[in-house]
Predict the structure.
Amino acid sequence: MSAVEPTRDAAALGEALDEAPYGAIAASDLDGWARLNGAASPRAFLQRLADAVTPDGWLYLTVPNKLYPRRPAARGSMTLAGCTRALEAAGFAELETYVLLPDEQAPAYLVSTGDRFALDHFLRRLFLPYVPGDGWKSRTERRALAGMQRLALHAPHGMRVALAPGYGIVARKAVR
């Protein structure tokens, strides 16, 4: 089995996409790849990736959450519902969704959005309000994260998922 892993430049990405279709594509950092490709938005690039997947193939992507309170409406972010709708419109039928923790840039944990007990366990036992540095900004961010953890422990599961830092999605393209 072989894989194509383009270097992080527009020419290599364009060349890799021109060789499509693929049985599987992994696109962590959807927004970064979309900007590199010159796409108008992550959603537009998502459509390009979807077109590059064979029927019965799969796509894995990560995306920052547009509703995450620490970075609301950040550039390139999408809601989970928006990602899901875009994938379904592109012909993907089987979707598995995960909350990426501590964030989508460096996920150490992928917790199923459908398992409220797993997310509760993570928040109670595994969550660390880690922010590098010792300055006042780092201490303030650590306090903010600890406060968000306390709020999340008492929030309904759907709200915790809706306000997560980012998402990982595995989707299988339907055979037509």
